[in-house]
Specification:
This protein is mainly beta. Helices cover about 0% and strands about 65% of the residues.
């Protein structure tokens, strides 16, 4: 069993900062890509940023220059530092980790999702 636990969301004024964390635990063999997605009311879930096991990063155009994704592989944790927040960043943020886990028969590769954390940016 693998679980992801997110933390760090909240309410912040425009121009402020927040840092999200997402830690994986369980029978983990290896973690490949990690990422953050968000879903605003009435909208589809969208990719915010992701990072490969080698540290290559990718950002949505709307957050480039303001958000930074990073990972601590020793802690199975991915972070999202969000600066210069805007009201349009308001959404539920979900982390995603692509994990190879141990099973009775060997290993299994799956996408895992965090429970979601609310980020609200007031104007």
């Amino acid at each position: 069993q693998v679980q992801l636990v997110e933390s760090g969301g909240g309410l912040v004024q425009a121009g402020g900062s927040l840092r999200l964390s997402c830690a994986a635990s369980g029978s983990i063999f290896r973690i490949n890509a990690m990422g953050w997605y968000r879903q605003a009311p009435g909208k589809q879930r969208e990719l915010v940023a992701d990072i490969t096991s080698g540290g290559n990063t990718n950002y949505a155009n709307s957050v480039k220059g303001r958000f930074t994704i990073s990972r601590d592989s020793a802690k199975n944790t991915v972070y999202l530092q969000m600066n210069s927040l805007k009201p349009e960043d308001t959404a539920v943020y979900y982390c995603n980790q692509r994990i190879v886990s141990y099973t009775l028969g060997g290993t299994s590769y799956n996408d895992y999702w965090g429970q979601g954390t609310q980020v609200t940016v007031s104007s």
